[in-house]
Amino acid sequence: MASVSIDGIVKNYGPTPVLRNVSLSIADGEFLTLLGPSGCGKSTLLRVLAGLEMQDAGSILIGGQVVDGLRPKRRDVAMVFQSYALYPHMTVAANIALPLRMRRLTAIQRLPLLGRLLPGRARIAAETDMEVTRTAKSLDIGHLLTRKPGQLSGGQRQRVAVGRAMVRHPAVFLMDEPLSNLDSKLRVQMRAEIKELHQRLGGTFVYVTHDQAEAMTLSDRVAVMLDGELLQVAPPQDIYDDPSDRRVAEFIGSPKINILEGVMRERGLIDVAGSTLKIDAAALPGMHLSLGIRPEALHLADQAGQSTLTGSVRMIEHMGSDLFVHLDLAGPDQPLVARLPAEYGPRIIPGQTLHVGIRPERVLLFTPDGRRLRGQVELSRPSVTPLREAAR
Amino acid sequence: MRGPRAISGAHHELSSRGGASRFRCPTASKAPGRGLRETLAAWILAGPSVFFLLMLYCLPVIGVFVIAFTDWRFGAATLSFVGLDNFREVIADEGFRSSLRNTAIYLLIVVPSTVSLGLLIALLIEGGKSCRSFYRAIHFLPFMATMSAMAIAWEALLHPTIGLVNQTLSAIGMPAANWLRDEHTVLPALAAIGIWQNLGFAMVLFLAGLKSIPKDIYDAADVDGADLWLDRLRTVTLPMLGPVSMFVVIVVALRAFASFDTVKVLTQGGPGHASEMLLYTLYRESFEYLRTGYGAAIAVVFLAIVVTLTLVQAHLMDRKVHYQ
Burial code of B189-207, b = ≥16 C-beta within 10 A, e = fewer? Predict the structure, then answer.
């Protein structure tokens, strides 16, 4: 177990910057998720952590020790790959045993025939076998030890990969989209198992995913990455309720957050999509603002009034428990999506004019450059940059 | 691994959707006469291939089998069946046995050397950074060249007095040899040419095999601690090349087994019978001595060995290929 500290990591592939000065510290035993769309650099950051790629600048500390330039095996990390990367020619037992064999046996002891004759090897092999069996049993794959990966299902392979990672009790577990090759049902199940594994082992987990559901359910903290930068690092609920950047707000949440462009009329009033909303914002009159409104922050209103928007129903999606109603507003091209209780279902039909009310405290305000405008923050004061937020 | 699965998934979706709306499922509607029409269409479509397969492969093989039981001489108007006489003679013939022995020795030199050198060169090229395609091309060239023409070039190189090999050897004070006229050196010399020719072929197959090893597995080996060159080779590279190696061994063995050009052009089986190999013996018996019946019996033996090798390959590949 160890803390991890990532300090100003820069990585370029040729002229293309992949990681731009990423800093992050992860506490001992924390479950941290790197979340971002594909190509945002999250996997590269994980590979730099593992030592599979070298950063161009910056430093990595694991357990307080600088590990820059150390080979992966000297970093006391274990990794679970998206493709599982099991050795297809070895049995499950041999796959799980390999990290132990490589560490405990000398090169000569590992020789195919001669190695068996050397003193000490039999004892080490017996110990290794015992640990492999114990690990496999704890993952419920004890009965598969003699099989080869090709004979296993996706979920079983996944467990073998986890077993290979945990068998030598590494300080840090690195997981690179470990669930994305599984079908959705199995994914939910394995998600719960990974969470349980983290609680049982108590190790530091760094988990890469593009799936926000995984990030939200598994993590102690989520680090949202985009274009090689950390936008925000915070507990899942804060990422959702209190995003510090418009891009974070747009990335998290399904259906996506509604973004409406508005103009500050006077203190406390914002013109948006043909209505005027009563929202207290620290902005000067005439200033353009983006309003982020989560679909569930909207509710049905009987009539137009203050803090309501009016539009015609374009489409209704029944989700069973909820109703996603797409409204065409006067002005913006994008429809406004409202999440309403399912019992409204029979009453709403396409083409109908609908009024939806907004709770002002649920509206997230963003400046035109995408930064969050918090109620209390005065405009003259520079707002906190995402990077400094991340390093906190 | 994800690619093909994704594609097949998409295909499945496409075909099931199409099947429901536009096309009638073939198994669902078994209209009378439909089966017959389909069978007919199948035969018409497969017809040309079946015809040529029969004419060019099956009939000649059957012909050889029939001729092997006769005393037919090439061009003769009559023939009579002699039962197993030809085969008895083949087994008893010292010339045939030495030919078989020479072929075996040739095979034992060529196959291991070609496979290990091919693998080594493939590893070197794959491990290097620059001029990869140049090295690939230059090693593959001999395989592309016409062997009988190349044999003449080799003859010049191996010439006892003016050949480059002997001149070089004597320049550095090593004993020269009359490579193609000495019964001790002729087989190794031919084998060296065989290795030179097949090396590029083995290398290209190994390169393809190396390329198909997922990079993730090397990364996993790195993290697991198998990060030294030899460990990586033993943990990942060699086992993952298993199916390719098996294929290379069998194909090179078959090619070595059927080598003919060098013998015909360079030695004609000489000196004595020191470089006589199976295919050359077959050729000489059938087309120089015109003992076609006897030659056909050799061809049957030859075919039996080739088929055995191929079956062994198919069996091993079946067992070994289930990797992923």
Answer: bbbbbbbbbbbbbbbbbbb
Percent of chain B having pLDDT more than 90? 28
ipTM score for this prediction: 0.80
A88 vs B223, B227, B323: nearest CB: B323
Distance, CA of B261 to CA of B28 (rounded, Å)? 57
Q: Pairing state of beta strands A308-318 and A353-358?
A: antiparallel
Check residues A308 and B105 and name the one with the higher pLDDT: B105
pLDDT bracket for residue A5 (50, 70, 90): very high
d(CA A251, CA B246): 50
Which candidate in B219, B224, B235, B319 is best for mutational testing of the A interface (most A CBs within 10 A)?
B224
Q: Give the separation between CA A159 and CA A175, rounded to whole angstroms.
A: 13
**What gap in Å lies between CA A345 and CA A111, rounded to an integer?**
70
Q: Of B222, B230, B324, which has the smallest distance from its Cβ to A88's Cβ?
A: B324
Chain A residues close to B1, C-beta within 8 Å: 83
Sheet (strand A258-266) strand order: A275-278, A269-272, A258-266, A288-293, A364-366, A372-373
pTM of the model: 0.76
pLDDT-based confidence at residue A384 (cuts at 50, 70, 90): very low
- B82 with B63: CB under 8 angstroms? no
Q: Are strands A221-226 and A31-35 parallel, antiparallel or unpaired?
A: parallel
The per-residue pLDDT for B225 is: 87
Task: Report whether A222 contacts A208 (CB < 8 A).
Answer: no
CATH architecture of B3-7+86-323: Orthogonal Bundle (1.10)
DSSP B224-238: HT--SHHHHIIIIIH
Report CB contact under 8 Å: B220, A88: no
Which is higher by pLDDT, A24 or B31? A24
Q: Dmax over Cα atoms in chain A, in whole Å? A: 88
Whether the per-residue pLDDT at B4 is higher than 60: the answer is: no
Cα-based torsion angle of the residue sequence B87, B91, B96, B102 in order, rounded to the nearest 10 degrees: 130
Give the per-residue pLDDT at B3: 39
Residue B105 has pLDDT above 90, yes or no: yes
- Give the whole-angstrom CA distance, residue B226 versus residue A95: 12
- Give ∠ CA A13-A18-A21 in degrees, rounded to 5: 120
Q: Rounded to the nearest 10 degrees, how much is the dihedral formed by the CA atoms of B288, B294, B295, B298?
A: -140
CA A253, chain centre distance (Å): 12
Q: Kindly state the tokens that stand for A177.
A: 């989209």
Radius of gyration of chain A (CA): 26
Distance separating alpha carbons of residues B263 and B277, to the nearest angstrom: 8
Q: What mean pLDDT comes out for the span A170-184?
A: 90
Tell me if B248 sits within 8 A of B206, measured CB to CB: yes
Q: Is residue B28 predicted with pLDDT exceeding 60?
A: no
Task: Count Cα neighbours of A115 within 13 Å in the Cβ-side half-sphere.
Answer: 15
Q: What is the Rg, in whole angstroms, of the alpha carbon atoms belonging to chain B?
A: 26
Q: Residues B153-173: what's their mean pLDDT?
A: 86
Instruction: Delimit the domains of chain B by residue range.
Output: 3-7+86-323
| Residue A125 token pair | 């092999």
8 Å CB contact between A368 and A287: no
Dump pLDDT digits (tens) for B253-285: 988 988 888 888 888 877 888 888 888 988 988
pLDDT at B32: 60
Q: How far apart are CA B282 and CA B96, in angstroms?
A: 9
Give the residue on A whose Cα is nearest the Cα of B220. Answer: A85
Helix (H) or strand (E) holding A20: strand A16-26
d(CA A373, CA A281): 8
Q: Cβ separation of A102 and B323 shorter than 8 Å?
A: no
Pairwise CA distance, residues B282 & B302, whole Å: 9
CA distance B320 to chain A (A): 9
